[in-house]
Amino acid sequence: MEETRLLLGRRIKSLRKKIGISQEDIAEKTAISSKYISEIERGHTNLSIDIAEEISEVLGVDLPALLDCKHEQHRDILTQQLYSSILNAPDKEFQIIFKIVNYILK
């Protein structure tokens, strides 16, 4: 459960920063205090579906998108998953992945 709270908190913080709003901005547009939002983002508290829906509306995403935290995992877990996916990719897809990664990292 704790890992889920941490991942969801990272997801909310990431989406919030992506659109350039503060915790106070979310607080002003909802019935949620900025202190509570901070606790959510740090994974220190659970949040209800109602609160999650309010936050998702302010962030401009639907609830399933807000709850999609897979890519917020620790770098080492993501690296292992990516490595496994690349190793199992057919040759043609492997070459495409290689080109995309090289393009992004340049």
TrEMBL record:
Residues in HTH cro/C1-type domain copies: 12-66
Family matches, as PROSITE patterns: HTH_CROC1
Keywords from the UniProt entry: DNA-binding
SUPFAM superfamilies linked: lambda repressor-like DNA-binding domains
Coiled-coil segments: none
GO molecular function, one term: DNA binding
Entry-linked Pfam families: HTH_3
Protein name: HTH domain-containing protein, Cro/C1-type
Native organism: Desulfonema limicola
Taxonomic lineage of the native organism: Bacteria, Pseudomonadati, Thermodesulfobacteriota, Desulfobacteria, Desulfobacterales
